[in-house]
Amino acid sequence: MAADPHDDADAHDAAHDPEHSHLGAMDLRVRALETVLAQKGYIDPAALDALIDTYQTRIGPRNGARVVARAWADADYRAWLLRDATAAIAALGYSGRQGEHMVVVENTPARHNLVVCTLCSCYPWPVLGLPPTWYKSAPYRARAVRDPRGVLADFGVTLPDETEIRVWDSTAEVRYLVLPRRPAGTEALSEDELAALVTRDSMIGTGLARSAAAAAVR
After folding, report:
1. Whose CA is closest to 200, among 99, 131, 107, 98?
2. Which of 120, 137, 190, 202 is catalytic?
3. Sign of torsion, CA 59 151 140 10?
4. I want to staple 71 with a disulfide (CB 3.0 to 4.6 A). Which of 16, 78, 80, 193 is the partner?
């Protein structure tokens, strides 16, 4: 298991956007403001939670799912994506802040990739939407590097002992997206059908793509 691209915390810290270095304090301020607004009746916490969930788990990840589906279906696009992810992703219309410098890492039978941001929560918003709460948590950031197999087990992912797990450390300079393995038996599926098999967690590395059978019963 190797953490990439930095070997020490100082180098990583220098590569992070300063605004992300104070994410903990910002979170507290946002929560305090949300509480005040809710108490005054200006916002409905339940509606706000639903809105955040929509962007976090549905709208954002759908972009990434389309990127993955295109790579599964088009070998030339897959090669481009692995060579120059920023350009290949932008060609599908997904670019902007938090996605300026993208790198795509491919899962294979021999290697499984896992993405983390060890000091804050750098995350590719254009393709994955808002980062989930657990991605920003200190336990995930610490354990992903120290005990990646344990983290994967917590998410219900068990890999063969011989499968290498490589951990990629996102920064403000580079954001990573995992290209999950294509499920077996999906050769006849369209890109839209393939995209339905791609989950947010599979593009972070904490999950796997859905099987065609599992998707059929959803």
Report:
1. 131
2. 120
3. negative
4. 78
Q: In the chain, what are the domains?
A: 20-216 (3.90.330.10)
For residue range 84-118, list pLDDT tens digits in order: 999 999 999 887 666 578 999 999 999 999 999 99
CB 208 within 8 A of CB 159: no
| Distant-in-sequence contacts of 95-102, Cβ < 8 A, 24+ apart | 95/126, 96/125, 96/126, 97/125, 97/126, 98/122, 98/123, 98/124, 98/125, 98/126, 98/175, 99/124, 99/125, 99/126, 99/127, 99/175, 101/173, 101/174, 101/175, 102/127, 102/174, 102/175, 102/176, 102/177
Question: Is 122 tagged catalytic?
Answer: yes
Cβ distance 200 to 155 under 8 Å? Answer: no
Clarify whether 137 is annotated catalytic.
no
Up-side HSE of residue 127: CA atoms within 13 Å toward CB?
A: 37
| 40-71 pLDDT per residue, tens | 676 677 766 665 665 555 556 899 999 999 99
Q: Is 164 helix (H, G, I), strand (E, B) or coil?
A: strand
CA-based nearest residue to 111, from 167, 194, 174:
167
Q: Residue 164: phi, psi to the nearest 5?
A: -75, 140
122, 137, 190, 202: the catalytic one is 122
pTM, entire model: 0.75
Strands 111-116 and 102-106: unpaired
